[in-house]
Amino acid sequence: MDVRSAQKLVMENKHIKGFNTTDVPLEFCLLQGEIAEAFDAWRKNRPDVGEELADAAIYLLGLADMVGADLQGEIEAKMVKNAARAYHRLPNGVLVKARDGDETEERSSL
Fold first, then answer.
1. String of DSSP letters for 5-58
2. What's this model's pTM, rounded to 2 decimal places?
């Protein structure tokens, strides 16, 4: 299944079940809760970490649809952008993204 199809299926399920489809701030909070549950499962070495990550992905897909984002297109574009980035380590070990000129930016998770 591709991301676009998954995004559509998530929203169809939300409509069928009567889940939130309009309150964007609430959906961000619910997504954060699912990420916390996945972290807790990982931290405690529970076997359901994959299921918790799936819950987080489902909330993310629904949120993307709620804000009108084509998540598949955004992921594809971001991966191309990330592939073209250069990184280097500072003397203190922090990985930084090289920018035009001498400026650097601390690397986020992506």
1. HHHHHHHHHHHHHT--SS-HHHHHHHHHHHHHHHHHHHHTT-TTHHHHHHHHHH
2. 0.82
